[in-house]
Amino acid sequence: MATRATDAGTNQSVERAVSVLRALDSGRAELRVSDVAELTGLGSSTTSRLLSTLERLDMVERDPVSNLYRLSLGILPLATTAANRHPVHRAARMVLQDLAARTGLGANVAIRRGTELMFLCNFEGTRAPKSYTQAGHTAPLHATSIGKCLLTGLTPKERRKLLPEPLAAHTDYTTTSHDLLDNELDSVRRSGFAVEAEERALGRASLAAPVRDASGDVVAAISLWGPTSVLGDHADAEGQRQALPRACPDLLEVRTPRSATPRTP
């Protein structure tokens, strides 16, 4: 009995430590102990002990003046290794760098992770600057062109099971109905690319295409994005649909590379 209790406590400790790390990735740069406790549902004393241990392990750091906690750069080597070892990241990196340089737009590659997409790599062009990296960030599948490409790898029944209706609205232009999404994905399959205008954030638009493995399964997607001032706004969706492929021919050329990549959950 004592052994089982110790094993259970060890597993629970790991889960709690991970929940603390994820709380520090909740959107705010720095958090108080009480903030982390509230986000994780843990007691203040337990949270404080976990943060102290993670600080000693260089997973988190504490500001000496404010005593607020944030993630430490000690995590970065682990995250970088995970990304660099992923076959999609390795295959897409030079393609994205070239696309961003030649089009001036932002170039991304992403895979599906459960109910969201995760960016593995990105490069910014001069017309779509960012002050931060997208790698490791997640985004909704139904409200992005890159996510819609990933959803084409699922059947309508699988999509409905994965994403309950109504789909979350991020702007007034977000598709929130599975029936409408089905129509959009049928268009993606016919044309080979997806277009999104201000569905996730106002002022932004994107074009994406699926990446398939040797068996033809969708294992990733690649996209170009930029401000609507460059790519056109939602009011001119049809014009944008015609203009984007002309502006980004390279994207359509790499939509079906053959590479052995693992399926995502």
Topology readout:
Elements: H1 2-23, H2 33-40, H3 44-56, E1 60-62, E2 69-71, H4 76-84, H5 87-103, E3 106-113, E4 116-123, E5 138-140, H6 145-151, H7 156-162, H8 178-191, E6 194-197, E7 204-212, E8 218-227, H9 228-231, H10 237-247, H11 249-253
Helix pairs in contact: 1-2, 2-3
What are the main properties of this structure?
disordered N terminus; disordered C terminus; 44% helix; 265 residues; two-stranded antiparallel ribbon; alpha+beta; 8 strands; 18% strand; six-stranded antiparallel sheet
How does this model look, in words?
This protein has 265 residues and is of the alpha+beta class. 44% of the residues lie in helices and 18% in strands. The chain has helices at residues 2-23, 33-40, 44-56, 76-84, 87-103, 145-151, 156-162, 178-191, 228-231, 237-247, 249-253; strands spanning 60-62, 69-71, 106-113, 116-123, 138-140, 194-197, 204-212, 218-227. The strands form two sheets. A six-stranded antiparallel sheet has the order 5-4-3-8-7-6, sandwiched between helices. It has a two-stranded antiparallel ribbon with strand order 1-2. Strand 3 (106-113) and strand 4 (116-123) form a beta hairpin. Helix 2 (33-40) crosses helix 3. The two termini are 35 Å apart. 32% of the residues are buried. The model is unreliable at 1-6 and 235-265 (pLDDT under 50).
